[in-house]
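Q: I'm a student working through a structural biology exercise. My instructor gave each of us a protein and asked us to get a predicted structure, then write a short paragraph describing it. Mine is Maleate isomerase. I'm not confident about reading structure output yet, so if you can add a plain explanation after the tokens, that would really help. Here is the sequence I was given:
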Amino acid sequence: MTRVGVVVPPANPAVEPEFARLLGARADLHVTRFPVRPGLQLAERLDAYNEALPAMIRSFGGLPLDALVMACSGSRYLLGPELDRRRCEELSAEFGLPVASATEATRRALEHLGTREITLVSPYQPWLTDHADRYWTAAGVRVARVIPVKAGERFAPYEVTTEELVGQIEQARAAPDAVLLLTGTGMPTLSAIGKLAEGNERVVLTSNLCGAWWALTSAGQQVMLGRRKHRDGERVPT
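A: Happy to help. First, here is the predicted structure for Maleate isomerase. I'll explain a few features afterward.
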């Protein structure tokens, strides 16, 4: 059986349920969480996740994994695409298995689809959204526009509801043929995908969708990233 390891920020509510649904019966999911670091500002916590990643991979002990995803986008936006990619390659060589961050997995998905332009949907605080914009631009992907998403009046990715996510994207009049990148592994997104794609030609990608696709593909499974809709309206790896 294929085994996928995932490293998750401590309070992230979305990665485990979404990865479990996306992987389905094709892989077993194994998760470890970054340690809680009270008192740190967000930027400091994100930096700490980057530094702690090797230790978190080692925390799986002797469990044989076929692929591993660092399911945190914000921390890698601070690095930029080249350093992000290089660190993933170094970890893959060190641990003898494919390792990717959520952002590197997303970059691979965009490359696989031949996508050179996105509409970035971000629940982050503006300073971190700016980092995300610069990351994708440096990766050779044109950010046609940015749509900020709030939970109520706050930038709080873990608290964004499906209704808020869909409503704010539609209120912003996202193009009917846009490639929407819903960034952030902690913002629940799967229930929104079908609604955002209904009756138009949009391609809707999310951090967790891309991470699951990359993990299955890297583990040797033949997986396409397409527009097929499952019975619950998700657009998922098939």
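A: Here are two points you could use in your paragraph. The two ends are 18 Å apart (CA to CA). Confidence is low (pLDDT under 50) at residues 227-238. It's a good idea to check both against the output above yourself.
Q: Great, thank you!
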